[in-house]
Write a sequence for this structure.
């Protein structure tokens, strides 16, 4: 089994900032347009040809990155959201 780790696309904090979300609320930020385009472009990478499972953290931006990869690949893939797959220290701004 091969395991690849990828980082989520660039986040857009405008919406959560405008809503005055702080702490874990900032983790609800979506991808920026550049982040969406980046996720779509990496989806063409041959490493995804034989993928069997996507494991993502519970952050909105990681789930959106996985969604963009699945959309480009036009293939149904099992996705699991793992609660404990996250940074050690949350953004508390």
């Amino acid at each position: 089994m091969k395991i690849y780790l990828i980082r989520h696309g660039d986040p857009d904090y405008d919406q959560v900032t405008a809503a005055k979300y702080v702490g874990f609320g900032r983790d609800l930020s979506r991808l920026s347009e550049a982040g969406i385009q980046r996720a779509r472009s990496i989806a063409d990478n041959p490493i995804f040809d034989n993928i069997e499972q996507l494991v993502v953290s519970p952050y909105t931006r990681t789930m959106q990155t996985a969604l963009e990869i699945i959309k480009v690949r036009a293939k149904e893939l099992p996705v699991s959201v793992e609660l404990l797959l996250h940074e050690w220290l949350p953004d508390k701004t």
Notes: The chain has a mean pLDDT of 87.
